[in-house]
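Protocol step 4 of 6: structure prediction from sequence.
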Amino acid sequence: MSILAGLGLFLLTVAAMEGVAYVAHRWVMHGPGWFLHKSHHAPRTGFWELNDAYFVIFATPSIALLLLGTSGTWGTWATWVGAGIAAYGAIYLGFHDIIVHRRVATGYVPRSNYMKRIVQAHRLHHVVETKDGTVSFGFLVAPRPELLKAELKRREMAGVRVSRGAMEQA
C-alpha cells in the first residue's frame, strides 16, 4: 500500500471512529455497559473511575491491528487502521478527559466557536446522571447547545442532577 493510500485510510479511520464512538456511547455505554459508565456520570471521588476500563476495551482492537499489521500477518492496511483508531483515542483523551473533565490541569480555555460548542454539548450530556434521558453522544461532532437544552426541557429535565439555572450556564 502506498504512503498516500495509507494516509487516506488513516484519516478515514479517524473520521469513522466518531461514528463508532457515537454508537458505542449511545447504545453500549448507556445500555448494557452502564455498569461501567455510570461512574462517569457521578461525581468522581479519585483520579480513576470504573468508566476508565473503556480505555482498555477500546484500545484492544487498535493494539491488535497494529501488531497484526506490523508483523505482516494482515498487511499494512491493518497498521494504518490501527493507527487511526489510536489517533482518535488520543484526540478523545485530549478533548474529553483533559479539556472537558480537566483531569489534568492545563489552564486551557475554549475560545473558538467549535471548541465552545463541543465542550458545552458534552457538559449538557453530563447534567443527566441516569442511564436514560441524556443528549449528545458524539465527541467531536455535536448539536448546537440550544437544541440540546430544548430537548432536555422537552423531557422535563428527567435525570438532571443540577438546577435549571446551572443548565442554562452550560
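Step 5 (inspection) to follow. Residues 127 and 160 are 5 Å apart (CA to CA).
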